[in-house]
Amino acid sequence: MFKFADCTLIASRNGKLGFYTAHAVVPIVESIIETQIPQTPINLHDPEEKSSKYQFLQRLNPKFYISVLVNCRNPKQVRQVHAQASVHGMLQNLVVANKLVYFYSYYKALDDAYALFDGMCERDSVSWSVMVGGFAKVGDYMNCFGTFRELIRSGERPDNYTLPFVIRACRDLKDLQMGRLIHHIVYKFGLVVDHFVCAALVDMYAKCGEIDDARFLFDKMQKRDLVTWTVMIGGYAECRNANESLVLFDRMREEGVVPDKVAMVTVVFACAKLGVMHKARMIDDYIQRQKFRLDVILGTAMIDMYAKCGCVESAREIFDRMEEKNVISWSAMIAAYGYHGQGRKALDLFPMMLDSGILPNKITLVSLLYACSHAGLVEEGLQFFSSMSEDYSVKPDVKHYTCVVDLLGRAGRLEEALKLIESMTVEKDDGLWCAFLGACRTHKHVAIAEKAATSLLELQPQNPGHYVLLSNIFANAGRWEDVAKIRDLMSQRKLKKTPGWTWIEVDNKSHQFSVGDTTHPRSKEIYEMLKILTDKLELFGYVPDTDFVLHDVDEELKIGILYTHSEKLAIAFGLMATPENTPIRIIKNLRVCGDCHTFCKLVSAIEGRVIIVRDANRFHHFKEGVCSCGDYW
Questions:
Q1: Can you tell me whether residue 579 is helix, strand or coil?
Q2: Would you call 260 helix, strand, or coil by DSSP?
Q3: Residue 178 and residue 158: Cα distance in Å, rounded?
Q4: How many Å apart are CA 166 and CA 182, to the nearest integer?
Q5: In 298-401, where do the E strands start and end?
Q6: Alpha carbon distance 604, 596 (integer Å)
Q7: pTM for this prediction
Q8: C-alpha 452, offset from chain centre
Q9: Each residue of 206-258: pLDDT tens digit?
């Protein structure tokens, strides 16, 4: 018997020659061995003669190659098996060829995988799935899409193995246009009801921010598994609708789906976004009842949840309960102290982290610099920044520079901050200029602010917040003509200011207020309470600070605007609707103004209530007339 080509053998039987594939030749070879070889007796005790027959037959059996491939540990070994398969004409066997493509892809040898795939005379759905998935898994999305296009053009029907790979590629790239195109293909081939394909589409739309499309598909699904529920819950949290995330979590449990640890991490993340303490307590209780272990991932998520719900003490309790901590856990706890204004505690935690044998990373040092910035620890922050490369081998990036600019800016050292910006070698971003512009507003340095605003608006011309910030700086300086120009520019570019809202949680229900709000069912009582409060505060020397009314109107009207700020309405309602001696917790979507900050301090002293305010930048804890920020914010 002789090999004529890669996949064809010539065999002689009864004096006749014939051409056969490797698969067809196996029974012939066995027949030859049984009928011809016995005429020359084989010594069955000779291991060489026994193994020769066995090895030859093995190499014509597809199961042999599959077994060997499973034991391969690197691409080199896969290539050796590929060579043997080629020599023995086994590449014509689709199962063997598919397995070779799979193991090349598994070991990320995509050039070898595609070379073999491209030369295959026959391909099935497995071949296409393995090749498309191989490119997707290594992040080679161009070839992933290209191979999928070949599949469609070949007339082969895509299946529920191949399509999820392509859909996930759209998700990772956040390529909504391609995602919608793949969705059309799904409809065309009638796979929209397939569980795996539909779950992948839900995930893709959610990650691309198209939460309504994701929810539409989710609601249409006949069967939803835990992964799909988790994706939908996480999608709402990412799209700033954390309340709906928690509603879905309750509904999931009602339908009998039991969450795993991954689902719980997603729920904890959603609760952190929402910032509602009673929900955090409920989730913590559920985790303890289900006896989930506080590993690094879940424990760190809970630290963040409690910190963002306004209770840094509970965050520390979780941190201390964790048996194992990594650099992210330590960084999360340091950050928690930072945005609660407890900079010293953040700095005290750092040497404990080093003593535990864990070295800081970029995130740790951002957290430390942020804590220094918000606690006025200027020299400590500058020391960390100057030594981070040498002591911890962490090269400063734009986030570290932003923290230091903020640190110097808050301290009024604007010239130093500007020099640092000008000497930077890393690329500047909008966050950096925004921090500097905020410092210019605080210290009323209009000339420098105009320069910073120019750079900021070049980077992000469509962000209305930047225009509002510059407009406020001009308003504080009394430059009303410039304010009008900024507002005209916003109108021309169809940009709108983000309205200010304040939320307060009472009896497990969220109440929302805007400036001058009269929509609440108890609005009349709220304004009566606010009037009583204001009268009390004025006896203690409170004078409304009209500098925080950035409109060109007379003083009386400015006082009226200040009087009905959303924070004040929420606090008045909280005093009415919550038990005495309990904290009042409110959330503001923008930065709290200076007048409201003073108002909160005085209310905490007069009414004997702790007031916890989470604004866009940090937490303020008001107690007995003092704020945790030390008026350094």
A1: coil
A2: coil
A3: 16
A4: 8
A5: none
A6: 12
A7: 0.79
A8: 30
A9: 999 999 999 999 999 988 989 999 999 999 998 888 999 999 999 999 999 99
